[in-house]
Amino acid sequence: MDGPAQVRARLEETGYLVDDGLAVACFLALRLHRPLFCEGDAGVGKTALASALAEALDAPLIRLQCHEGIDASQALYDWDFPRQLLHLRAAEAAGVVDAERLEGELYDRRFLLARPLLQALETQPSVLLVDEIDRADDEFEAFLLELLSEFSVTIPELGTLRAQVPPVVVLTSNRTREVHDALKRRCLYHWFDHPGFARELAIVRRRLPQVSARLAEQVTALVQALRGQDLIKPPGVAETIDWAEALDALGASEVDAELAVATLGSVLKYREDAERARGLDLTAVLAAREVRGA
Fold first, then answer.
1. Comparing 22-31, 57-66, 116-125, 284-293, which segment has the lowest mean pLDDT?
2. What's the pLDDT at 288?
3. Quick check: 36 and 186 in contact, CB under 8 A?
4. Rounded CA gap, 261 and 235, in Å?
5. What is the mean pLDDT of residues 281-286?
6. Are 128 and 62 in contact (CB under 8 A)?
7. Using one digit for the tens of pLDDT, what is the confidence trace for 216-243?
8. Omega into 125 within 30° of 0, i.e. cis?
9. What gap in Å lies between CA 199 and CA 12, rounded to an integer?
10. What φ, ψ does residue 127 adopt, rounded to 5°?
11. Rounded to an integer, what distance in angstroms lies between the CA atom of residue 123 and that of residue 278?
12. What is the distance between the alpha carbons of residues 119 and 113, in angstroms, rounded to a whole number?
């Protein structure tokens, strides 16, 4: 892609709307082969960006979901021990007694299970999503730092495997903990904030074209108001889309306070947040939206 404007256009063709800052960050990540570190609250579009990039580049999306305790064997590669054992038994039944030959056969590439990181190194082109890196521990973060620095890995039995073309790498963090500066320094950085009303409405309309314009505006206004409250988990854009989709599934072309309260489970995931929302004057929020939109 020749510049940020083309990146933006290609992403918007997939239904993913970006601002100028994110378009520039994506372009530089593609041009400089640098990982893009995306940080922000859950539900603001970080993971969806990787999917949109994969679609725009016509490349497979390879996802590594991080979790506490994740290690190299889960992320990079492992040996297929059951198949190795079957091969060993078959060789013994055939009378093969050459130990060196057997060992060489057991650690052949065909018995290697490629996990997401190795898959990304071996697949050109590809988009690698390292999702929720903040959930992994420090040791895995250090391991990932080394791999992303060289885009290569050494497997003792096979040697060094290096990506001919580095994958496009998107790392996401919900900031449940601070990721070390050493990893961030290897990446381009973009903070994902909650969008303003106009952009969020455009996203909802793009993702859910079947939803009435009035319903999309009302749901977006309600979510924007909810974010202004002291909630345990403010709703993201993903929840806005979920809420509008749920209301549309109920056959609604518009929403009132009663229907909004009845469907709060689509947008709020904590009892305390739902109780706070029920205490709001949702009718007034909707009325204010009508006045602004008039």
1. 284-293
2. 85
3. no
4. 15
5. 91
6. yes
7. 999 999 999 999 999 999 999 999 999 9
8. yes
9. 13
10. -115, 120
11. 50
12. 9
